[in-house]
Amino acid sequence: MQNHKKFNIAIVGASGFTGSELARLLSLHPAVKINHITSESHEGKKFSDLHPQFLGILDQTLESSKVIKNSDLDIIFLALPHGISMDFVKTLSEQKARIIDLSGDFRLESPEVYEAWYQKQHIFPEGFKNAVYGLPELHAEKIKKSRLIANPGCYPTASILSLAPLTALDMIETDSVVIDAKSGLTGAGVKASPTTHFSNVNENFKAYGIGTHRHTVEIEEQLGLLSNKPTLVQFTPHLLPVDRGILATAYAKPKGEMDQNKLEKIYEDFYADKPFVRIRKTAPGIKDVRGSHYCDIFPFWDERTNRIISISAIDNLLKGAASQAVHNMNLMLGLEEQTGLEQIPLRP
């Protein structure tokens, strides 16, 4: 890592799971200083009052986001819901600080696509011209130069990485992709709803957003950019009765001949210089990556059905959100990309 004074950063929106995980990673990061953590609803409280696991570690006072505008910062993390982030990006667009937005507000190719899938008018369409999709395994060089990063969704991260080698090499039929994905409850955010009520989740398992989930178009766009042709994805998410983790199983028909050895080599070659993607010889589980920035992928060739099956596992709060944002920050600041991200998965 380059010798450098510590970079000044701020976390806007600290009350949720993502803000908490960002703080956990950044408080231990050797190259940054957390100047501000904001929360409109908890202003004046200590961060550790809101998240007791930080007691004696990060007792910083939560501030109003108004302090951000006049603060000398290098990176601003927006850990806010979609529809709210865009207003901050618009307000902060003239500042020197670079922005990493963890919402969905700038992930798609245009404001028109956003409005169609999110059913919300976009108030800062100009932002789409400069936003870079923050998946480091695919867009590292663009990320390094960007001033606005659209941090990917959790489902799309697992799904795109599971098929990226095949779409990049144009080795699958682009209308044959089916992705069946399951997420832990934290993917729904910190605020409870009838869907996430304990009695509805405990000892239960269900699909939702069938045919309409907004992450579908995010996956389609990114796989389409890799293959340079439209990609049609049948995506079905499911809610698991666990705290955290995503398991995505992707199915696709190959173009031409395929076998297990060829398939494994495609994945190993594509991710050879990507330190946080691990190619497995057996199917991963969510506990294999929990608490870490790793994405574990098992590519399997089913000779009987002439179909590729690619299974990926990530921690939805980390590789699917907070640690991905830190990875993007490392690239933007010219740091070694692994800095502050080498946590070993927690198992059991």
Automatic annotation (TrEMBL):
One of its GO terms (cellular component) is cytoplasm. The keyword Ribonucleoprotein does not apply. It catalyses: N-acetyl-L-glutamate 5-semialdehyde + phosphate + NADP(+) = N-acetyl-L-glutamyl 5-phosphate + NADPH + H(+). One of its GO terms (biological process) is L-arginine biosynthetic process. CDD domains: AGPR_1_C, AGPR_1_N. SUPFAM superfamilies: Glyceraldehyde-3-phosphate dehydrogenase-like, C-terminal domain, NAD(P)-binding Rossmann-fold domains. It is an enzyme of class 1 (oxidoreductase). Keywords: Amino-acid biosynthesis, Arginine biosynthesis, Cytoplasm, NADP, Oxidoreductase. Pathway: Amino-acid biosynthesis; L-arginine biosynthesis; N(2)-acetyl-L-ornithine from L-glutamate: step 3/4. This is N-acetyl-gamma-glutamyl-phosphate reductase. It comes from Cecembia lonarensis (strain CCUG 58316 / KCTC 22772 / LW9). The gene is argC_2.
